[in-house]
Specification:
The complex is a heterodimer of chains A (177) and B (261). Helix content of chain A is 30%, strand content 16%. Chain A is built from six helices and seven strands. Chain A has a five-stranded mixed sheet, with helices on both faces. Chain A has a two-stranded antiparallel sheet with strand order 1-2. In chain A, helix 3 crosses helix 6. Chain B has ten helices and twelve strands. A five-stranded antiparallel sheet of chain B has the order 4-5-8-6-7. A four-stranded antiparallel sheet of chain B has the order 9-10-11-12, sandwiched between helices. Chain B has a three-stranded parallel sheet with strand order 1-3-2, with no helix packed on it. In chain B, helix 2 links the parallel strand 2 and strand 3. In chain B, helix 3 packs antiparallel against helix 4. Chain B is globular, with a radius of gyration of 18 Å. The chains are: A alpha+beta (177), B alpha+beta (261). Chains A and B meet through strand 6 and helix 4 of A and helix 2, strand 3 and helix 5 of B.
Chain lengths: 177, 261
Amino acid sequence: MFNSAIGKDFDYREEFMTQVSMTVNGQAASGDVEGRTLLSTFLRETLGLTGAHVGCDTSQCGACVVHVDGKAVKSCTMLAQEAAGATVDTIEGQANADGSLNVIQQAFQDHHGLQCGFCTPGMVMSAAALLKENPKPTEAEVRHYLEGNLCRCTGYHNIVKAIMAASGQDAEAIAAE
Amino acid sequence: MYNFEFEKPTTVADAVAALGGDDAQALGGGQTLIPTLKQRLNQPGKLVSLTGISEMNGVSVDGGVVTVGAATCHADVEAGAGAYPALAALAGQIGDPAVRNRGTVGGSLANNDPAACYPSAALGSGATIVTNTREIAADDYFQGMFSTALEEGEIITAVKFPIPDCASYQKFLQPASRFALTGVFVAKYGDNVRVAVTGASEEGVFRWAEAEAALSANFAPEAIDGLSVSADGMVGDIHGTPAYRAHLVGVMTKRAVAAAH
């Protein structure tokens, strides 16, 4: 299309955008992105999957954690094009097939593992990554694994309880600090 | 973030060619570079991702040397460098689990952040930095804060760490950034002990020669008694004064020697 500002034909999409494709929550997904498009931006704005939250945008808070090829990553600190061809799992894909909450999500509800809920998608995705690696973590291991996930309501205690319960351990045995 | 072109080659040769342009820059895991780009502190015309190059990925052990592909993420070093436990332990203390799944050893060494963990392991082990054109001894590689011996367009492809008799990395964590407020890597090779300090000096990682001499004669924490580093040239910020960091160098060196046994 003709661009009067530069006096010639110019198509931004053609000039600066590339199509990426990946598998998101088991479904094929694709869209046009720039070089600088973050995975979090692609998920939220292109695919409309707003479950992964952008809290700090400086890779500190972990609200944007998703799994890329099974590994927890901060989607605000990965380029969308780096995930081309990858399998991406977000909080939207965590529920059971019948729509009921999965074990980790249900444990967060049962143990009041959230207050405002903003950090919860990242907490649940980090918990899922932890339990896949280490199905029966100790309380200390849970707390250590969550070092990259911040809860500004400071509700860590119930989050840890929820993850212990989701791993089939006695959450009530954890003393309040 | 300013826009840039993005390329993801699958061989070192293609990456070198892609980096040939004027304003192209290599991208490792991006755990430092992407935040820097968001701040608009850097404006490359093109980013060349190195994480799709399989020949730069993985950990191998051969003849007393652990070779880590430069695009190997910290989590894979933690899991794969069991032959050099202090190195695996260091990798497992970087950032947090999600950062460790992206950040790479090559990215850390190319950036040479003065508070990063890996530079102390490389310098403390007398490692060899392998690039697409040459091999650089760690003693020649680190040239001050954010400065290295790498030429424009040169890519770190692997790092060779000689396995010591014993070693330990002790990190005094700066809990907000998860970098080292001060970290000390001690490694013993026969009668030769190396001590590398990160997070403390404005010049970035450095070897503490006096401690090396004392520990080479007597590899025990008390060998450090009476030794100190000057606070001149140490980093001072809201998290610690230069004098505090200078003091930490001694404390963390002792802890590392005690833990290495």
